[in-house]
Design brief:
The protein folds into 2 domains: 1-119, TIM Barrel (Alpha-Beta Barrel); 133-238, no CATH class. It is built from 8 helices and 10 strands. The chain has helices at 15-27, 43-55, 74-77, 102-116, 133-149, 163-172, 195-202, 233-237, and strands at residues 32-34, 60-65, 67-71, 94-98, 121-127, 153-160, 177-181, 205-209, 225-226, 229-230. The strands form 3 sheets. The chain has a 6-stranded parallel sheet with strand order 1-2-5-6-7-8. It is globular, with a radius of gyration of 17 Å. The two termini are 27 Å apart.
Length: 238
């Protein structure tokens, strides 16, 4: 179960609503939850961790690294939200900033564990490194590999949006799993062309994210979104 909506993606969600959703999922037999610092600028991690700790049932959890949350003044943050999906009900002075350095990865993971109120996570996914994949390979992966060897995390993966970068990641890193968003759905099956074949060669697991392409497949109207922006008439016709 993904948790971007529980962070207030496009629509505000209360703590109580998020908890009820997660507990309903647990009671329905769902035991794998994915989250990230980006989702609600930390709110989703807090909500997922609180609900899972309350549920007191076995679970598998993945979170993401590659962004750290930083505090800015309103003047400093002006214009920085361009290109990011809109989260409602977040602290307007807290902003997620990319950092794929060794120090950034360690900080990201440590802060996620604090928000989740957990001692460890099962999987750490390098998040949205599509156009910084070389830096992720050179700097992010080695520290995660070290943490995996020490048992701090059990698995390493990437969470990406574009198949070419994800394929490169699978080829050049020893990944346990990948999350590919929006590229294996009723509207887009491009992940089958090369990415999934490479995953089969390397025995790399696959998580398919964004199966509704951020909303249009669940509610096909002009008010819906496709890949986190307003859907075009051309996409809607498909």
């Amino acid at each position: 179960m993904g948790s971007a909506p529980l962070g207030g993606l496009f629509t505000e969600v209360t703590d109580a609503e998020a908890e009820a959703t997660i507990l309903a999922a647990v009671n329905s037999g769902i035991n794998f939850f994915d989250t990230a610092p980006l989702y609600g600028h930390g709110n989703a991690e807090k909500r997922v961790g609180a609900a899972l700790n309350k549920a007191n049932k076995p679970f598998v959890i993945s979170t993401k690294v590659g962004r750290v949350l930083q505090k800015f003044t309103p003047e400093e943050i002006s214009g920085k939200v361009a290109g990011l999906a809109g989260y409602i009900g977040v602290d307007p002075t807290i902003f997620p900033v990319f950092d794929f350095s060794k120090e950034g990865i360690v900080r990201s993971l440590e802060e996620s564990l604090t928000r989740l109120n957990l001692a460890s996570v099962d999987i750490a996914l390098i998040h949205d490194a599509d156009d910084q994949i070389d830096k992720a390979i050179a700097e992010s992966y080695p520290v995660l590999d070290e943490l995996r060897s020490k048992g701090v995390i059990k698995g390493i993966g990437v969470g990406l949006n574009y198949c070419s970068y994800a394929t490169k990641a699978v080829k050049e890193m020893d990944l346990d799993i990948i999350l590919i968003a929006g590229r294996y759905s009723l509207l887009d099956q491009s992940a089958q062309e090369e990415l999934f074949k490479e995953c089969m060669k390397k025995n790399t697991g696959v998580m398919v994210g964004g199966v509704y392409n951020s909303g249009v497949l669940a509610n096909p109207t002009l008010e819906s979104t496709y890949d986190y922006v307003k859907v075009t008439p051309e996409i809607l016709k498909r």
